[in-house]
Amino acid sequence: MLDPQSSWPFERPEQLTDALREQGATPEERAELLPTLRRLSEWQAPQPSPADTRHLLARLTSALPALSPVRQAIREQKLRQRTSIAFLLAMARTQVSLFGLGFWLVSALITLIGAGVVLSKVVSDQDVVLRASGPLLAYLGTIAAFRGRDARVLELELVCLPSPPQLAIARLVIVLGYDVGLGLALSLVLWAGGTEQVLALTLSWLMPLLLVAGLALLLSLRLSIQTAASLAYGIWLAILAITTTSHLQALLLAPAREMLLGCIGLTGLAIALLRMHTAMHRLLPHS
User: What superkingdom does the record give (predicted)?
Assistant: First the structure.
């Protein structure tokens, strides 16, 4: 066996012979190669000067392509995929499994209860029921979609290929898409039940939902997602209680102003997504 403490070139002929034997050389080949290898130990490699190194790098650089066409084509294809609607929808499909069965059932149950209360006319002010139950779906959806931060798995989510805004958009597509679908189902149920002003009732359910979702995501840049969602929903309930017990309901919660609330919520979602990159260092846990 070779001496592990010896250096190359080998100091003794026995070491060279052992090295050739380990490489599978026959006795004839070892006898032929041994003098050549011993000559190598006497050869002194010339030391290149800085000028020689620069000359070699210049020759090699000129032989290399300035930009790989293959890599450029792959990079452009990935950029097109990441900015396409199909890519976001495909990513949203992969994120569906993160939402448990309880989220789907509880959201549907809240919508069903709201429709039942409106159809049965148990409460005289039907708008209040929908304005309180719609944002509750945004509260549940926000917590379910972004619970990874509080579960201390945000670092694992960031390892994924999509960027944090892309992940957020994909999950918002799931949550808001499901909530809008429930809103459409609510409209059909109210229409089939002969309820008047179905569109106004649907807006009173959907617009506050968007407002609470946007406010919750915006506050989550500074607070935990549980605190942000609870605070957003609590603020809306306080506003709803004040307007209901005063004479401001007709002024502040008119259909046109409710549309404005929905636009404010969508604006909050857009601002939160744009600022997510710069706020990411605050979202990661600190040791």
Answer: Bacteria
Q: Burial of 145 by CB count in 10 Å (0-12 exposed, 13-18 middle, 19+ buried)?
A: buried
129 burial type by CB count under 10 A (0-12 exposed, 13-18 middle, 19+ buried): buried
In whole angstroms, give the CA distance from residue 45 to residue 130.
86
Q: With a threshold of 0.85, does the pTM exceed it?
A: no
Task: Reply yes or no on whether the pLDDT at 4 is more than 50.
Answer: no
Which of these, 97, 187, 176, lies nearest to 137 by C-alpha position?
176
Q: What is the pLDDT of residues 217-266, one digit of tens each?
A: 888 888 888 899 999 999 999 988 888 777 666 566 666 777 888 899 99
DSSP three-state, residue 62: helix
The C-alpha atoms of residue 189 and residue 205 are separated, in whole angstroms, by 14
In DSSP notation, 149-206 reads TTTT-HHHHHTSSS-HHHHHHHHHHHHHHHHHHHHHHHHHHHHHTT-S-HHHHHHHHH
CA-CA distance, 151 to 160, in Å (whole number)? 17
- Torsion of Cα atoms, 176 then 181 then 182 then 187, to 10°: 130
User: What CA–CA distance (Å, rounded) separates 176 from 186?
Assistant: 15
